[in-house]
Design a protein that fits this description.
The structure is a homodimer of 110-residue chains. The first copy, chain A, is an alpha+beta fold and 110 residues long. Chain A is 54% helix and 13% strand. Chains A and B meet through helix 1 and helix 6 of A and helix 1 and helix 6 of B. The structure holds a DNA duplex (30 and 30 nucleotides).
DNA sequence: TCGATAGTTCAAGTTTTTCGAACTATTGAA
DNA sequence: TTCAATAGTTCGAAAAACTTGAACTATCGA
């Protein structure tokens, strides 16, 4: 198994981050990670019926864009948002995205 | 020539908008439109050496994601950001993106 | 009506995304 | 220590999306 590649904070690219967030599956993963701070892949995609190879692709893309940090722990691969680094490089971006994504699920607090 | 399709404000999808913004060419177009309020395609891609068919593809994608509004005026196709609608649907998103994009060009106000 | 400019359409080549099948890694029991 | 089960990974091929050149349409001014 190849080691995970995480781009250093200073090398995060805005367009890569936006691209990574610009997919409904990945957006749902990011929302799940935002709710829980740390999750194994299987839990982060909970409810999404997707082949494991496709899930893997999405996690890799998120990781290589610098959106998530990944580490191994036993049988699990644990993921978390790189919140601090994202906030430092792109102030307000993640907040705006998550707010809009949550709003889309829970329209206008009825 | 087919009529332009603009999704209504209420149907803008967060992931489509993020996807549209997640490309360096399109991000530059959006920055140019942000500086100038209205621009023909040719001016909005000023400086980017791209085939016209590729430019066309990017403008269409931005339009169909709801990021820009397009109208015809003489020989020109005039584009503008759908700022108000984007701000209403996704508060703070465009500002955060544009701020980060400008920051990337003019790093940390040296 | 012609030429020039601005953008559009189409088709083909390249790149990404998706997904099934087979694989590796770790854990908990027997 | 071996086995079965769980969690992800890798590979290869099919489907979708991006890029581009070439040929096209639309508008304007001479």
């Amino acid at each position: 198994m190849r080691p995970f590649h995480h781009p250093p904070a200073g090398e995060l690219k805005l367009e890569s981050v936006l691209y990574a967030l610009g997919d409904s599956t990945r957006l749902k993963i990011v929302q799940a990670l935002n709710r829980s701070s740390e999750l194994p892949c299987s839990a982060a995609v909970c409810g999404l019926e997707l082949p494991k190879s496709t899930q893997h692709h999405h996690f890799r893309l998120l990781r290589e864009a610098g959106v998530i940090f990944t580490r191994k722990s036993g049988v699990y691969i644990i993921n978390r948002l790189r919140r601090d680094e994202l906030d430092a490089q792109f102030p307000g971006l993640l907040d705006a995205v998550l707010a809009a994504a949550n709003e889309a699920e829970q329209p206008t607090q009825a």
